[in-house]
Amino acid sequence: MNPEWSSKAEAEPGGSAIADQNTGVWLDRIGAIEGTDTKMGLRAHLDKALEQGANLFTVVVYDLPNRDCKAVASNGELLISEGDMVRYKNEFINPIAEIFADPKYQSIRIAAVIEIDSLPNLVTNLDIPKCAEANGPGGYREGITYALNKFSPIKNVYSYIDAAHSGWLGWDSNFDPAITLIANVIKGTDAEWDSVAGFVTNTANYSPLVETYLPNPDKNVGGGPIRSADFYEWNPNFDEKGYAIEFRKRMIAKGAPTTIGMLIDTGRNGWGGPERPTQVSSSSDKNTYVDESRIDRRYHRGNWCNQPSGIGYKPWADPYNGVDAFVWVKPPSESDGMSEPDFQPDPDDPAKQYDPMCDPDKMSNAAAYPTGAMDEAPHAGRWYSEGFQYLLQNAYPPVSTPAGPPAE
Ligand code: BGC
Questions:
Q1: What is the distance in A from the centroid of ligand 1 to the CA of 135?
Q2: Are 243 and 237 in contact (CB under 8 A)?
Q3: Are 75 and 136 in contact (CB under 8 A)?
Q4: Which of 40, 109, 231, 237 has the most CB atoms in a 10 Å sphere around its CB?
């Protein structure tokens, strides 16, 4: 349990219902390893884990050069054009690996989530110059290969590679290239498949766990399969349970051992509250049928910033065959990005910017739909009380429900 996140959650009205949950500790800049006067560093977190008698620590490794190459809300401190791969290796990955390898911490299973959004950006966003650059030397592949090579000899580190989410890579035209790209990176490491414990879907995203009322994407309504409705844009993967299981299956077909497992970030994909449908639509119009039946209430599935969703299932091991756990990688209530165009830079992370996807008054960049982002949000990673209240109230299952296996 991250004591810093936990005490902030505890201080929010109603927050004690979730304040005891395991959430990811993000190493999102070189300075985060050491920590500051007001923020615990990596050793402090691991010492606290020992003190708690914890057997698991969830950590996110997130500082690649050209980080967040498509969006700008989480732009990072390192740039390929500045030759910063050298700093990534020497000042970021090496010190993290040294701390992980301290025998003092060998009783703690360290679940390391590696570089969110990075390899998926190389699948779909190569038209963006910063992503094209990240596709080359000194870019994402090199950084991830280096991190895996440093972490894999440490027996209690379990690395999980980011697998984006169903609403991003779910189309076959994205899915297969993503599997090939990610598998090739893993096969290129020293320990090959032994470098990874598996993959994580939905990190910091909002895609629902199960689209309860839409189990069959090929179901015909009004003369076409429901996956051809505007909301799904022909993507046959509607939810994270199906996507995670399919992702694992395709990795195994590429040579991954059957011991690999999936994680699903369920921190903010609950979508409960009054807007949640309680039955399947009876409409004979495909779009109306989908819109009235879907758990995902976003205007568009590409909307990723501060969505008014709800807390999802609490962290839980082995929810389904092949899925290692539900996890809360993105700590609920931490912002995805600044909503105001006339912002002050974040003193800890001056590269973080305003991305219109985080502005409720803007249209989504993917299509002609509003962003749906909640208003008056601070910089990515900063505490966002209004957002927290929304997430609590719209939790599904309700936050009073104890952690346990999923009902679906
Ligand atoms: C931010 C990180 C932050 C993380 C968790 C990301 O969007 O860029 O700085 O640690 O979210 O809230």
A1: 23
A2: yes
A3: no
A4: 237
Range of the domain at 85: 3-393
Is 402 within the bounds of a domain?
A: no
Two tokens, residue 307: 């969505």
What's the pLDDT score for residue 328? 98
On whether the CB atoms of residues 96 and 49 are closer than 8 A, the answer is no
In the Cβ-directed half-sphere of 58, how many Cα atoms lie within 13 Å?
22
Q: How far is the CA of 104 from the centre of ligand 1 (A)?
A: 28
Write the residue with the smallest CA distance to atom 11 of ligand 1.
381
If phi > 0 it is left, if psi is from -120 to 50 it is alpha, else beta; for residue 222 that is: left
For 29, which DSSP code?
A: S
Active site residues: 117, 336
DSSP tag of 399: T
- Number of domains composing the chain: 1
Q: Is 210 among the domain residues?
A: yes
Residue 408's pLDDT is: 87
Task: Name the pTM for this structure.
Answer: 0.98
Q: Which residues line ligand 1 (CB under 6 A)?
A: 26, 28, 74, 330-331, 334, 336, 380-381
Q: Which atom of ligand 1 is nearest to the CA of 349?
A: 9
| Nearest CA-CA partner of 170 in 113, 232, 235, 118 | 235
Closest atom, ligand 1, to C-alpha of 334: 12
Domain assignment present for residue 403? The answer is no
As a whole number of angstroms, the distance between CA 151 and CA 106 comes to 13
**Dist. CA 255 → ligand 1 center (Å):** 33
Q: Name the one residue in this structure whose structure tokens are 């690649």.
A: 64
What CATH number does the domain containing 88 carry?
3.20.20.40
Mean pLDDT by 10 residues, the chain (408 residues): 98 97 98 96 98 98 97 96 98 98 98 98 97 97 98 98 98 98 98 98 98 98 97 98 98 98 98 97 98 98 97 98 98 98 94 96 86 97 96 97 94
Residue with tokens 């909002």: 206
